[in-house]
């Protein structure tokens, strides 16, 4: 029996959405048309997708047929050695990241999501179910469409007892992210896609089984996360799910929290952490593993193992540890000079300052700004919020002075822990699980499209250092010959081209 204790109930989403519509804070009765996607009249998400898939398949076919051999940009040695920074190498439909402006989800910025997606309370934060509709279809849903996703996720949300038995068999103290990965792997035995593939379902219908798995998994993640939280930190006293709360609020409820501010915070948190285009470690890993036709459970669990790295999702845990250490050493209200010295000491010890820097962004992360706005509204006097605000005044300057850090500004992880701490969710080792639940929305929505578009198995070309050296030497030789030929003719020398063309994969 999963439910060892029963706490509280919840408000009806239908009632709150209706109130939001009445107050004029929803999106009205019609969906908002984005890009090439026509609005759907139905509340059935899978039916909406079924109508969109053939159009998008045709769009991809044309792009490939008409422009497949067109070059987009050069491949430099730095790109090969530098973790493929800036190298376009995959199709990702659900979001796009601009280094200066930040993330856009199907073309919408975070403030635009907040203004346009359906909410659970009037003027409140978007519900992630609306975002899921947007990510999957490219359409801003009506409140009724978002509410139907909430309903569908509630119906699919039950986590079988076998998962708890498997988690209970793990060593005490197992990190919550390991528990998340193992929990997801335990659910994998129910994969519709794995069964469909075994039955020989044709490739054109793969996406439908992937959709079923993705919706099942997204639905179950809040309860799985709550089980991990309650068994790790609350003595295994579980809370049964609400039959009326929306997806993110229900997770908070099952974790044992009821504060309406906490529910709103989690709706916002789950919305903004969902997707950050395709190249980040968790998204790319999920995509890569899925390209081998591993089912959504296998590919998402792989992505979560990447999210558990301290340079990626685990940074939110590391930020809290770093802040706690800072407060223990300097007290709750340190002056700027003391903070500056602490940051310098962190760098001098060879550690990174968690929550700062980014591989793509070159400005303050709008996900940081969104959380800062939330804190300014709900917890302006909270000391930890003030400390994080003070860090914003000091850290970028110190990081900038090193001369090597490309982006000294804060990222999403610099702020999320403050919000969780304020509402009493103080166990920082759990924070990356909350990030991971949200990330499912983006990577699984894209996974559905990857199968709908029939994207092939990923297989980039790798090179040895010897091969790179030879390629560079050959290129230099060609440049010298060209220069000699131009000099002989008295022409101006050709501009040196330092790019090395990548050779196609041979296997
Ligand atoms: C996110 C991150 C991994 C991006 O790495 P990147 O793309 O290699 O970043 P850069 O090109 O700016 O790195 C150049 C150098 O600055 C260092 N650097 C970058 N951010 C740093 C930070 N916050 N603190 C200390 N050093 C940092 C890098 O480690 C690298 O050092 P090296 O040349 O000695 O190896 C990096 O900024 C980082 O480690 N940040 C802290 C962890 C974090 O917040 N992660 C969550 C990201 S959403």
Automatic annotation (TrEMBL):
The record's listing under SUPFAM superfamilies reads: Citrate synthase
Q: Where is the active site?
A: 312, 358, 413
Q: For this UniProt record, give its keywords in alphabetical order, as a comma-separated list.
A: Transferase
Please indicate which superkingdom the organism of origin belongs to.
Eukaryota
UniProt entry tagged with the keyword Transferase: yes
Q: What Pfam families does the entry give?
A: Citrate_synt (PF00285)
Keyword presence, Glycoprotein: no
Q: Which InterPro entries match?
A: Citrate_synth-like_lrg_a-sub, Citrate_synth-like_sm_a-sub, Citrate_synthase, Citrate_synthase_AS, Citrate_synthase_euk, Citrate_synthase_sf
Report a single Gene Ontology molecular function: acyltransferase activity, acyl groups converted into alkyl on transfer
Q: Which GO terms describe its biological process?
A: carbohydrate metabolic process; citrate metabolic process; tricarboxylic acid cycle
Segments for region (Disordered): 469-507
Q: Which GO terms describe its cellular component?
A: mitochondrial matrix
Give residue spans, biased composition: Low complexity.
Answer: 491-507
Show the NCBIfam families listed in the entry.
cit_synth_euk (TIGR01793), PRK09569.1 (NF007128)
Q: Which family does it belong to?
A: Belongs to the citrate synthase family.
Please identify the protein, giving its name as recorded. Answer: Citrate synthase
The organism encoding this protein is Pleodorina starrii
Q: What is the lineage of its organism?
A: Eukaryota, Viridiplantae, Chlorophyta, core chlorophytes, Chlorophyceae
Gene name linked to the record = PLEST008470
């Amino acid at each position: 029996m999963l439910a060892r204790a029963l706490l509280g109930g919840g408000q009806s989403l239908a009632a709150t959405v209706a109130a939001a519509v009445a107050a004029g804070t929803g999106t009205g009765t019609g969906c908002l048309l984005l890009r090439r996607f026509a609005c759907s009249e139905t509340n059935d998400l899978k039916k909406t997708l079924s109508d969109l898939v053939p159009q998008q398949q045709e769009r991809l076919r044309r792009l490939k047929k008409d422009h497949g051999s067109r070059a987009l940009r050069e491949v430099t040695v730095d790109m090969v050695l530098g973790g493929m920074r800036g190298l376009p190498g995959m199709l990702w439909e659900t979001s796009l990241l601009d280094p200066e402006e930040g993330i856009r989800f199907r073309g919408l910025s975070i403030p635009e999501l907040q203004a346009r997606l359906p909410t659970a309370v009037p003027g409140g934060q978007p519900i992630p179910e609306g975002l899921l509709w947007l990510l999957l279809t490219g359409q801003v849903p009506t409140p009724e469409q978002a509410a139907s996703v909430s309903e569908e996720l509630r119906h699919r949300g039950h986590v079988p007892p076998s998962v708890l038995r498997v988690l209970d068999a793990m060593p005490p103290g197992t990190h919550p992210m390991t528990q998340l990965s193992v929990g997801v792997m335990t659910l994998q035995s129910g994969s519709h896609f794995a069964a469909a593939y075994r039955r020989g379902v044709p490739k054109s219908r793969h996406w439908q089984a992937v959709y079923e798995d993705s919706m099942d998994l997204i639905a179950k993640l809040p309860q799985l996360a709550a089980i991990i939280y309650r068994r790790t930190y609350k003595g295994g006293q579980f809370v049964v799910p609400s039959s009326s709360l929306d997806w993110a609020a229900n997770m908070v409820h099952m974790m044992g929290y009821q504060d309406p501010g906490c529910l709103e915070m989690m709706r916002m948190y789950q919305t903004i952490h969902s997707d950050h285009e395709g190249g980040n470690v968790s998204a790319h890993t999920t995509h890569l593993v899925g390209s081998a036709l591993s089912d959504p459970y296998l590919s998402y669990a792989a992505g979560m193992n990447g999210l558990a790295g301290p340079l990626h999702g685990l940074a939110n845990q590391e930020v809290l540890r770093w802040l706690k250490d800072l407060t223990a050493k300097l007290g709750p209200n340190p002056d700027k000079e003391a903070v500056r010295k602490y940051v310098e000491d962190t760098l001098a010890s060879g550690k990174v300052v968690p929550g700062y820097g980014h591989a793509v962004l070159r400005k303050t992360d709008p996900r940081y700004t969104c959380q800062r706005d939330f804190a300014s509204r709900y917890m302006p006097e909270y000391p930890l919020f003030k400390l994080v605000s003070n860090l914003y005044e000091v850290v970028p300057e110190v990081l900038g002075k090193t001369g090597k850090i490309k982006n000294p500004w804060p990222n999403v992880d610099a702020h999320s822990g403050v919000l969780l701490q304020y509402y009493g969710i103080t166990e920082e080792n759990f924070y990356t699980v909350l990030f991971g639940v949200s990330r499912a929305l983006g990577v699984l929505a894209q996974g559905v499209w990857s199968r709908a578009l029939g994207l092939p198995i990923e297989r980039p070309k790798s090179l040895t250092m010897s091969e790179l050296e030879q390629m560079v030497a050959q290129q230099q030789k060609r440049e010298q010959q060209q220069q000699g030929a131009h000099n002989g003719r008295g022409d101006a020398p050709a501009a040196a081209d330092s790019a090395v063309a990548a050779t196609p994969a041979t296997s």
